[in-house]
Amino acid sequence: MKQKIGYALLAGSMLFGLTVTSGASADVNKLAETCANCHGKDGANAESDVPNIGGFSAKYFAITMEHYKKKERPCVETKIRSGDKKGTTSDMCQVVKDLSDDDIKQVAEHFAGKKFVRTAQKFDAALAAKGKSIHDRSCEKCHSEAASKADDDAGILAGQKMHYLKEQTEFFLASKRPMHKKMKPKLEALSKDEVEAVINYYGSLQ
């Protein structure tokens, strides 16, 4: 049973602005509509610090939500980008704290049924080439098909926002975010320049 945590999650700041009455099961369409206030329609957006979440596996999505509920991941405050609460601030721990297990299951399955949208962004081609060899050597086993396969239950890194990937990698290295025991030694063995190369590789997959 895989519970691998990818560089990103690579679902990082998911579902900002969502409010659900404790113990009640919300309509999935209303949950998803509120998610769009930051993550965009079907979980795709143009914000550099907000991950694209459409297409993540339901299992990975749900694990991420649970990490936030337990405050096992940094609860980064951010502004809500659209909707009735536009301009106000929230964080993921506040967003998910009242979600029921059924709420999480519904919204996870909803976004799992969407397509992951890769981000058009600038990257360093030389670093990306170096990053590919590092990925192939150290990451491909768990983040297969160039970190693009949702069924790995490890997030989708290929085409994710580089700004977001860098932030989450820093959280991993600072022990602020749970990291799979197989990933920990591999990531910690990389130099700062090698980490940057891998991030550029994922950013180059557009």
Which helices and strands appear, and what pairs or packs with what?
Layout: H1 28-39, H2 58-69, E1 78-79, E2 89-90, H3 92-96, H4 101-112, H5 125-138, H6 144-147, H7 162-173, H8 183-188, H9 192-204
Antiparallel strand pairs: 1-2
Helix pairs in contact: 1-4, 2-4, 5-9, 7-9
Task: Give a quick precis of the structure.
The protein is built from nine helices and two strands.
Number of helical segments with 4 or more residues: 9
CATH topology of the largest domain: Cytochrome Bc1 Complex, Chain D, domain 2
Give the mean pLDDT. 88
Kindly report the name of the CATH homologous superfamily of the largest domain: Cytochrome c-like domain
| Biggest sheet statistics | 2 strands, antiparallel
Strand fraction: under 5%
| CATH architecture descriptor of the largest domain | Orthogonal Bundle
Task: Return residue spans where pLDDT drops below 50 for at least 5 consecutive residues.
Answer: 1-25
Measured distance between first and last alpha carbons: 30 Å
* Rg, nearest Å: 16 Å
Principal-axis shape: globular
